[in-house]
Amino acid sequence: MRNTKMYNLFLISLVVLVYLSVTLGLYFFQRSLLYHPTENNYSGDKLTVKIEKVNIKTEDNIDLIAWYHKKDNIKFKTILYLHGNAGSLENRIHKINHFNDMNINFLLLSWRGFNGNAGKPSEKGLYQDARSAVKWLINQGINEENIIIYGESLGTGVATEIAQNRNFAGIILESPFTSMIAAGKSKYPIFPIKLLLKDKYESDKKIKNIKSPILIMHGEEDKIVPFWMGEKMFKLANEPKYSYFSNYDDHMMDFNNELINSIKLFIKSLN
Question: Of the candidates 78, 63, 166, 160, which has an alpha carbon nearest to the alpha carbon of residue 111?
Answer without folding.
Answer: 63
